Amino acid sequence: MNHVERVQVALARGRPDRVPAGEFELEPGLVAALLGREGPAGFAEEVAARDLLGMDLLAVTPQTPLKEEGNDCYQDIWGRRLRRQRGLTTVQAPAIPSLQEAASYRLPDANAFDLRSLRRWREETDFFVFAFVDGPFQGTNKLFDFTDFLLAVAGREGAISDLAAAVVDFNLELARLCVQAGAHGLLIGDDIAYERGTYIHPGLWREIFLPLLRRQVEAIKAMGVPVLYHSDGNLRAVLPDLAALPLDGIQCLEPAAGMDIGAIKKECGGRLCLMGNFDLDLLASGTPETITAAVEQLLLAAAPGGGYIFSTSSGILSADLPPRNVLALYRAVAEYGAY
User: Fold this and answer.
1) How confident is the model at residue 70 (pLDDT cuts 50, 70, 90)?
2) 155 in the Ramachandran plot: left (φ > 0), alpha (ψ -120 to 50) or beta?
3) Residues in Cβ contact with 33 at an 8 Å cutoff, skipping those fewer than 6 apart
4) Confidence band of 88 (pLDDT split at 50, 70, 90)
5) Which of 50, 61, 259, 332 could connect to 253 by a Cys-Cys bridge, CB 3.0–4.6 Å?
């Protein structure tokens, strides 16, 4: 099987020749370290690093230029004021400063997003390429101060529901453009939870955001591509709701948040492909031996019968991870992931 076929079979809850594996993003510093090189790592180097690790997939986030404002500050296409210092990006001012301004806010034009990277990965490599779009919860909350957003949701403010519906319209237009550009599948990023549960009451999420998420998923499925859903945190309270959507799979399954992949496999494995669950903290602080043992145990729980894709829970490997641990991680997947 090639990379695309392997991922497609797993997304359909089938059993390919081996467990598909991959991370959505590799930071350039890690790419260079894995290859034993110094200096900047570009497209060719990332392809080589993914081949070295035996990955099958990646995800591309459509990008737009940032407008420089001085003092390390920038404005993004959403209207947020950002600051970059020491490799960290923080939001200095939200796109929508107050709920009263939500009705007049206008979302950006999806055609302004740069899809050249997506096209290049599709045309010049044989990896399965996901395109990243927001979900209704994440796509709306990122426009506000998060506390203000949560208070407005709790108050069932109509402006939030109206804006979230417009966000879904935007998400669908961007998804359509990504499919036209060659994306094999869509990844909906929609962080609705933290380690103890959902950010808002599950009933409130079902009332306001679940119908919008269903509309987004159904419309993307109508485009003829698989859809994967990502959220950090403990999703146990809403997992049956997610499993009832026409999603192909769910990614993250954060072990530190109590997401027991063996139990989830028994509960939802027939309806959802599961992806993720390897502890990023262990990858950062463990030894090659402890990492190898953890991979073996994870695959014993998640791989039988198919419908599983290996990745860390985050799907992003940062430059500060020990290269030898990352190599050990993927060597263990190659060793224990064959059916």
Assistant:
1) confident
2) alpha
3) 319, 323
4) confident
5) 259
Residue 194 sits at φ, ψ, to 5 deg, of: -125, -170
Query: What are 316's strand-pairing partners?
Result: 25
Q: Which single residue is written with the structure tokens 């947020």?
A: 80
> Residue 146, Cβ neighbours under 10 Å: how many?
12
Amino acid at 141: N
Q: Write out pLDDT tens, residues 240-256.
A: 999 999 999 999 999 99
Answer yes or no: are the C-beta atoms of 20 and 10 closer than 8 Å.
yes
Enumerate the H helices of 60-157 as residue ranges. Answer: 116-124, 136-141, 146-154
The helix-helix angle for 288-302 and 261-268 (nearest 10°) equals 20
Give the SS3 label for residue 148.
helix
With 0-12 / 13-18 / 19 or more C-beta atoms within 10 angstroms meaning exposed / middle / buried, residue 194 is middle
Question: Pick from 134, 149, 7, 147: which is nearest to 61 by CA?
Answer: 134
Query: Is domain 3-61+108-336 in CATH 3.20.20.210, yes or no?
Result: yes
Three-state DSSP class for 183? coil
Domain ranges, ordered by start, for the chain: 3-61+108-336, 65-107
Q: Please tell me the distance from the alpha carbon of residue 53 to that of residue 217, in angstroms, as a whole number.
A: 31
